[in-house]
Amino acid sequence: MYKLYQVDAFTNELFGGNPAAIVPLESWLSDDVLQAIALENNLSETAFFVPEGSGFQLRWFTPGMEVDLCGHATLATAHVLFEHLDYAGQQITFQSRSGALYVTRAEQGYRMDFPADLAEVVNPPEALVKALGELPLEVLKGKEDYMAVFPDEATIRDLQPDFRKMMELGGRGVIATAPGNYVDFVSRCFFPNAGIDEDPVTGSAHTVMTPYWAEKLGKNTLEARQISARGGELLCTLEGDRVFLEGEAVSFLEGTFKI
């Protein structure tokens, strides 16, 4: 029997933010079994972790693939360790495909320490413009995603992407972002190649957006909101080549499964 938790991340309200499934393991199952569990859960991400030294190895799977970095499922994993599994330390260290990640308790919720993703300006791909139905002010390319910058929050809210066309881009997908009406910046994130047409709240995308908006707005601490149907809030801080993301989490489900 295996334990499974479901946590809503980047929110302080149940049924908000981005739900993630968390599966603690004593040792790794085969990759095809991990992928099958993620597909069965049918959430944007399922996180699996095993103990390693004083910390943990952490992996994330969408219903269709393993990914290099996932913010909301890392936040949810830390929440499970602190709130359900009685982790006694002040800081959790996760080893991942993106290197070492660190999570500590914050005044409200948790603070995650991630590597910054410094995107570079590129010519807008034709498939991106057609997929979004709008010409961005500029387009940048990070490690996995394109980032399309628009003039205002209303444009982001009104986007109706063509996901089939977007799949022609390769990579994970597209981040659409703009200055916010009530926060520093807003976004929506579309990852059809990872099996997620629109992700509710995407921590990893903020490792791309935070350096960009910090430079544009001339400030290193920014309030962000992902304006998906569920929505979520993050406090983002740029310190050198690291991005610190703060957010809250709420437990929804605790159960067991057998394979």
From TrEMBL:
<feature type="active site">
    <location>
        <position position="45"/>
    </location>
</feature>
<comment type="similarity">
    <text>Belongs to the PhzF family.</text>
</comment>
<protein>
    <submittedName>
        <fullName>Isomerase</fullName>
    </submittedName>
</protein>
<dbReference type="InterPro" id="IPR003719">
    <property type="entry name" value="Phenazine_PhzF-like"/>
</dbReference>
<dbReference type="Pfam" id="PF02567">
    <property type="entry name" value="PhzC-PhzF"/>
</dbReference>
<dbReference type="GO" id="GO:0016853">
    <property type="term" value="F:isomerase activity"/>
</dbReference>
<keyword id="KW-0413">Isomerase</keyword>
<dbReference type="GO" id="GO:0005737">
    <property type="term" value="C:cytoplasm"/>
</dbReference>
